[in-house]
Every structure is written in structure tokens, then in C-alpha cells.
Predict the 3D structure of the following.
Amino acid sequence: MASPDGITLAHGLGGAKDLPISPELAIAGATAALVISFTVLAIAWRTPRYDAATSGRVAPPGLAAIVDSRAWRITWRVVGFAIFLYAVMVAVFGKDLAINPILGIVYVWWWVGLVPLSLFFGPVWKAISPVRTINLGFAKISGSDPDRGLFEYPERLGNWPAAFGLFAFVWLELVYPYPTELGPVRLWAAAYVAVMLVGGALFGNRFYERADPFEVYSTLVSRMSVWGRRGEQLVIRSPLANLDTTPVRPGLVAVVAVLFGSTAFDSFQDSTRWVKFVQGGDTSPYLLNNIGLLAFCVAAGAVFALGCVLTGLGDDLRRVELPNQFAHSMIPIIVGYIVAHYLSYLVEVGWLTLIYASDPFSNGSNWFGTADLPLFTWLSYHPTFLANTKVLAVVLGHVLGVIAAHERAIRILPKRHQLTGQLPLLFAMIAFTAGGLYLLFAA
């Protein structure tokens, strides 16, 4: 996306020139952090510490009363639907220009902005989802229950539809040749709304919990927040205790593989090596990018799954069940990579989208008084701070992932495998760390 001054605002990880340390030192330090973390856990963390039925403390009654009130739910439904109507307006009637705010709304506010919002406030998309609101409206009109559709949602599908939906979105953003043209964005968004409404009619709200790519995405990230539920009761938990409550469903590994692999490919496709490879041959760049995106997602899932299936087994577990059992440990890693990859993009282009939002039809209007705001480019002018933040986010995400995997391992694995059984998964996480930091320098 371009600024009013014609400056292209990229969202990549940044290059090696931005970093005040050598790539070798960063990778070695991160690997050491993972190994030391695992060693400390092996010595000091020998029994499970998290229990969904008892962990956390009950939220203050006043806060719980507000959050659980009907007025609170209606307020956020109205906010979400108002933003949806605005997005439809600029998508349908706005000009096909880079300054149309729909591009920033879709690629920045919606895709990237869901991460910090869900981290701080819980499952935001579930609260504001316009497709849930429309489904609720249809249910009120017909006198039916929005939680129940015509059929029961097949448990074997799990999160697989969400994984395919997420892949479709990252394909539009990263591979499709014209992702910033208005027509393709409108078509993708219309298809998303149509599929979600049909799914809601057939399977009720359970369809959104399991199959809506953005609700699944937001809810998974919200597992790293301090807000959780014990039954219907609002509780405050440590993020790791909350993370441990992530439901184990089919397709969960596919979801985290798409989120992780697509973020890695987004950085890799800007690297000098990939650009030279794509431009130096006779094969279509479009085909190569399709293959690259799919390969990164499949490789991420395969490396993680292999690290899990090589883990020692418990008496009541099959090897094929282990990847989904440990998939929650990838969530902090994904959040770390999203922070590293999209931080400056979210802040600077997100701010730019707020400026454009006041001029929905690109005719010089100033609906919300934001059109004259100055550009926010502080992060771009402080590369050392930005680079250190990125490296820290990657390393911290992996350390939290190791802790989450260790907690699950000592709960479900037999004692003879509780430590040695984790080593394959630890090696997989070290590979992710080294690969992620390599991309941080290669971009």
C-alpha cells in the first residue's frame, strides 16, 4: 500500500542491515535460550501445574456483570456491524485506488489487528463478527435457535474448514497477482460472507466456532490472553494456563501450519535468493509462488507433526493423536512471528488506513476528522528498536511454546518418556527458531 507521498510501506521483517547483531549470534542465542529453558523445566517443572477446572481466579463481580450483560454483547455486535457496513460501502462504491480504505481494513485492521485485540481482550471476532450478527437476525425472524442449525456439525471436520479458509486468504494476499485491486477483494469477501451464512444456517453457531477462519484465528490467539472461562464463569488466568485449555480438535495442526507457514513464506518471498530464483528462470512466477506458499505450510505442519509422533507414547494415546495434542504450543510461536513480521506494518499502515477512512470515496472529504493526521513513521526511523523487538518476539514465542509443550508432555506421557520423549519436538522448535531468524535476516 502506498502513502499519500507515494512511499510504499512494506510489511516484511526487515533486513540484516536493521539488526545490530550478527545472524549467527542471534540464532545461537535463541537456540541456547530454548535449550536452557528445556533444561530448567526438566529440573524444576516435574508435575502438571494447569487444570482448566481449577486454574485462574474468578473475575471481580462488577467486571463479570458488565461483560456477561446483554447490553455489552449488543454494543459490540453493533460496533462490529457498523464497521462491516462501512467496509461494504467503500468496497462497493469506493474507487479502485490504493487509497481506498477497504485495503487497509481487510489486510491490516482485520487480518493483523485481530492479533493484538485478541491478546488483550479475548476472542474479539466472536464478539463482533457480522456473520454471527446476520445469522442471529435470521434466527430472530424465523423464531429458530441461532446455536442450532438444521444438522449437527460433523466432529471429524473439526477445524479443517478454517484451515482451508485461512489458506485461501493468505493465497489472496501473498500469491494472487492483483491483491490490491478492488474486484478480487470484493469477490473474496463476498464468498466468505456467503459461505459463513450458509454454514451458520446448516450447523448453527458451532459452525463459526469450528469453521470460521477468522473466529478460529482470533480465538486461538486469545488463548494467550488473561481472560478465560470456567464453564460460563469469567476468570482471570495466566496466559500459559489459558493456553492449556485450547480444545483438541481435528485440523488444529493444519490451522497452525497455515498461520506459521504463510508468515514465513511472506518473508521468504521478499528475500534476494527467492527473487533471483523466480526472475531467473522460465517458470511462471505465479506458479512458483503458489508452490512456495503451499510448500511452506505443508513443511511447517510436517516438521511439527514429525516432532510429535516421534515423542514417547502414553498408554491411552495413538501416535497420530499427538500432533493435535501439542498443537496449542505453536500458538505463542505464531504470535511471536506475527509481531516480528507485521509490527511496523500494523502500526504505520494501520494508522494510514485511519487517515484514508475519513475519505471513503477518494474525493477529498474528511468524515471522521482524521484525513489531516500526520503519518506515523516512528518505527521506521528507529530500526534498532524495531529489530530488537522482532528478535525478542521470536525468541519469547518459542520459549513459551517449549513451556506449553512441556506441561502437556508431563501430563499425557508416561514417566519414562516425559523428558526424552520431548526431545524430537524440541529439535523441531529449534529448527523453527533458526529458520525464522534466518528469514529475519534474509528479507
